[in-house]
């Protein structure tokens, strides 16, 4: 190659590098914009969860319609993202289930469980327990029981904090069992397991607090 051609080649390579950098930067900005939009949608859905408790009426219908729209938008957008957290998936799954999209909700609950594997035992507990609630409501009782068992297993009983999570989970689980099988003994057995876990708490304050929790109404 002649020396005279070297500067032109260098200029061409530099121009190509600048062009590629520009493309990469635009894509990065687009991804950041999509991530920000997704976070906004999840925040809005979290804000609407309290309003879901409104009685039936025009206002409740408006809230439900907005939640459905936001949930669909978030579900569509999440397919292009790779850094969604388990709590974000849980919010999306709840909203989709509440809005009448069971298949999409199921997919999002399972994604929440997968994401929780890298986020610690508490997040795994919340994801599996939330999925179990969803399964109970869908009448998939055996699968729901499996998920509740995995939730209890995930949190373990290494300290009072973990044991308190177990106690709450046993009670929540017993409530679902009462609805699924009012004549069965599973609910009573679960409450018994909760009481046994209370006895293992090292802190007297924690024992009093958890006993009061177990004695409180399910309503």
Question: Overview of this structure, please?
Answer:
There is one protein chain. With about 220 residues, the protein is mostly helical. It folds into two domains: about 1-100; about 120-219. Helices cover about 80% and strands about 0% of the residues. The protein has nine helices and no strands. Helix 1 (about 5-50) runs antiparallel to helix 2, helix 5 packs parallel to helix 7 and helix 7 (about 160-180) packs antiparallel against helix 8. The longest helix has about 45 residues, at about 5-50. The chain is elongated, with a radius of gyration of 25 Å. The N and C termini lie far apart (about 85 Å). The mean pLDDT is about 90.
Keywords:
9 helices, transmembrane helix, membrane, 0% strand, mainly alpha, 219 residues, elongated, 2 domains, transmembrane
List the helices and strands and how they pair.
Blueprint lengths: L4 H47 L6 H21 L7 H13 L3 H15 L4 H17 L3 H15 L4 H21 L5 H14 L4 H12 L4
How many whole angstroms does the radius of gyration measure? 25 Å
- Report low-confidence residues grouped into runs of 5 or more: none
Counting DSSP E segments of at least 2 residues, the number of strands comes to: 0
The secondary structure category is mainly alpha
Through-space gap between termini: 84 Å
Number of helices: 9
Percent strand: under 5%
